[in-house]
Amino acid sequence: MNRLQTNLTPLLPAFIHTKEGKRWGYINNQGQFVLPPQFEEADDFQENGMAIARLNGKVGLINDTGQFVIEPQYNSMLPFTENRAIVTDDEGFSVINEQGQVLTKKTYGLINPYQEGRAIFAETRDDQFLYGYLDEDGNEHIPLQFELAYDFSDGKALVKIKENEFALINRDGHIVQSYPYASMMSYSEGLIAFAKTYQDNWGYVDEQGTVMIEPQFTYALPFQNERAIVNAAEGIDNQYGLINRDASYILPPTYQDMTQLGNGRVAVGRAFDPERPFTGSRYGIATTDGSVLTDFLYDQVAEYKNGLSSTTAGQFTFFINESGQREPSLPVIPGIGTITIIDDVIQANVDHSLSYYDRAGNIVYQPNTVFPLDDQYRIHIRKYSPNKDYLVYYPQIEGMTNGEAEKNVNAILRQKSLVLPVPSTQLDYGYYGDFSVAFFQNHLLILKLEGYRYPFGAAHGMPYQVHVSIDLGTGQIYQLKDLFKQDSDYVKELSDIVGQQIKDQMEQGHTYFFPDQYRGITPDQAFYVTDDALVLYFEPYEIAAYVAGFPSFTIPFKEIEGILDFTSSFWRSLHE
């Protein structure tokens, strides 16, 4: 019998920090590893007694002994729904069953999880992205033909046939009813939100197309348990309210944000700063009958499960009960994220980490904060979180024989990790930073410091990346010039090599480079080294589009050996 099905003890994913990165295994509810840390990623065990795990860069499915029942061969895998999982490889999306058999006859540009025996799939045909539906056996039961497609609900699904024409179809793809509208929003509880044109307000029609709620909202969400969230704002500010099927307001349209939480509860939000509503909201709890239970106390509120909602306020996470108050029988967890009760253990996904607590708030398991590089050197993981929207994990080195050099190196690592003065008041952006060991050999350590700054309300944020090359023996921070002979024109030679690589990539169809933007490298160009190569890279937007990330160029040492200084301390630290 599967050990998970005996209900003796759950297996819980947990990780340790190593110089190779996080290594995942599974612990019991006492915090002891049952399956040792060995995977690069590991998910919760699913109801089928198996869990998704990553090894050597690929994901597969393991059983409760840690053995792969589906070998790690995919780039990604979604949890099983209706005994089917969606997987991806370099070719695209496919469907597998629990035995690992690939059910689809080909790969697709997109496949969504199954719902009611159908899975939305999509790919490009004649320069148009079209949608259809797969059946349980992975066959194209409803062929590609729709411009949009929604999941099935009660045996029907909403699709967009063409401009200004939506339709409700059955499980075989037959049209039940068509609608002459520009926009529609999912079929739910017998009603569909619609807007006649892109400029018009939203209302609701029934399955037959009869207008049941006249267009009057600037936005309208699907009904859920006889209630729907709508926006009545005419300007840029939101005015969310909750209506019933008669279009009567249960909660007035006065809120900046609103989310249905289940269990007859709604989170209602008020902007932190009315002058800057994009910075976010504070939430209170109300009922779907219109009673407001709390003031605006919370920063994040999750859906209710078993009468409890995972909630954050400030820099703490805790459960609230159906009254909207913190549940006093359960602990307050330091950090921001979500918490889940698994048997008698609280799984805490907070501050981009994973720990476990008992119901009294005692730590059952948390990952290590120190890991060795070798017998002499160690890295301490420090946490800097002066604000609920600013979090950095940064490295501090221990074991250098020169204490003053170690102190100076650690100060530089703090500064380059962006451990900077940050106000405790509400920010208009969020920032998360972390680090990894990019290279370690002898006494040369290269740390990759990275982060992501996201201005609230922006389409996307800006990534941050820098490599710091440290001689642990002397404390010297190496620069690019330290690799080369003093009389060499390394800037010109490297610039020419990178320029040729850009030209070659453009000829191969890589169109993300900005024409004529590249004018060579700088003397202090961003870089790192591997065993046998130099890697130069540029900032986003510097020479290429944002989608290119940090454009990087690998130059084998053998290609530039004429200008390398083989007597330099940098080179010796790399090869001694």
From TrEMBL:
> Matching InterPro entries, A to Z?
DUF3298, PdaC/RsiV-like_sf, WG_beta_rep
Q: Name one Pfam family in it.
A: WG_beta_rep
Q: Which organism is it from?
A: Halalkalibacter krulwichiae
Write down what this protein is called.
Answer: Anti-sigma-V factor RsiV
Q: Which residues form the DUF3298 domain?
A: 481-558
